[in-house]
Amino acid sequence: MGSALETLCGQAYGAKQYHMVGVHTQRAMLTLLSLSIPLAIIWYYTSNILIALHQDNEISNEAGVLNRWMIPSLFAYGILQCLNRFLQTQNKVIPMLISSGFTALLHVLVCWVLVSKIKLGIKGAALAISISNWVNVILLAIYLRFSPACKKTWTGFSKEALHDILSFLKLGVPSAIMICFEYWSFEMIVFLSGLLPNPKLETSVLSISLNTCWMVYMISVGLGAAIRVSNEMGAGCPHGARLALRVMITFALSEGATIAVTTLLVRNVWGKLYSREEEVIRYVARMMPLLALSDFLDGFQCVLSGAARGCGWQNLCAFINLGAYYFVGIPSAVIFACVFHFGGKGLWMGIICGLSVQVVALVAVNLFAD
Fold first, then answer.
1. Burial class (CB in 10 A: 0-12, 13-18, 19+), 54
2. How far is it, in rounded angstroms, from Cα 328 to Cα 182?
3. Chain-centre distance for alpha carbon 143
4. DSSP code, position 84
């Protein structure tokens, strides 16, 4: 839901309605913190839910432990998404870079201490994530409070943020649906892998594939055209928005090709970063060509989706993602995996089918938009 700020804050800043950037951000914080409460309850009962869905008991219990210890990070993550977009829409990326860089270095140290030294295992890993997210939030909050660069857009907490929350929800809910339809389809692939023969191997490899995909996806998010497009639209310059989109598409295609080639080059060693099991390492190597193709498509659609969010087309994109992933992607994955017996590779082939449909639809939307 926080991605609604890419539209609201971006267009408000472009229209020079600076105080509304802060109001929209505060309104989003209140909404996301409230939403985190029921999500925390779901996380608390993760193991029970997974077992009820016939997942492997050992995997389900470990996932439940991880989620319970990550509940504090859920609230921090909600605030962090709002702060990031508050700064992004004003093109203030250096503070975010410094904060994230410091947090990443701290995370390595904290994770090593909690997992390896104190021997907390998976609990330590989850706790390290929570600590890192809250540190990042605190650093950005300090910058926001004391930096003169945010003086116009953050004038302190306003009662105005308590009003007209419905207007945020009208854009926030479609934003959440749009993104969740996409994210959940990837997560569902990992879920379906637990129903295949040898679920521990399949789940391990698909989880590695998903983590790799999200890591690469973050590069595309950084290149996303949402903020620039929303700024130009707010300023009443649609031609500038289209130019920004074209520039970002050029960057996305170049970055996607580079990532795809790199993925192919490291295919035989990538699995060793996650596991010492030879079977897992060999399986990951066979998955990497599919990951290379999906990474290329995913990076391209990320920019196109960002432009759509910048223009406020979340409702349309939600329907596109629904059709691409749940009418094409997931059914194709089941057919490839269960009918043609391609296993985990078949599940990822289904994701590629969904991505392909999504890219074609988004190209058409952006190409023919006024």
1. exposed
2. 12
3. 24
4. H
Quickly tell me which residue has 């508050």 as its tokens. 86
pLDDT digits (tens, 9 = 90+) for 145-172: 888 888 888 888 888 888 888 888 888 8
Contact between 115 and 66 under an 8 Å Cβ cutoff? The reply is: no
d(Cα 117, Cα 266) in Å, to the nearest integer?
A: 31
Taking alpha carbons only, the member of 264, 349, 251 closest to residue 300 is: 251
Tracing tokens 């904290």 back to the chain, one arrives at: 110
Burial class (CB in 10 A: 0-12, 13-18, 19+), 108: exposed
Q: What percent of the chain has pLDDT over 70?
A: 98
| 8 Å CB contact between 259 and 296 | yes
Instruction: Show me where the domains of the chain are located.
Output: 1-154, 164-365
Tens digit of each residue's pLDDT (9 = 90 or more) over 96-136: 989 999 999 999 999 999 998 998 889 999 999 999 999 99
Q: Does this model's pTM top 0.90?
A: no
Contact 29, 163 (CB under 8 A): no
Structural tokens at position 25 = 């951000």
Give the CA angle between residues 305, 309, 314 to the nearest 5°.
95
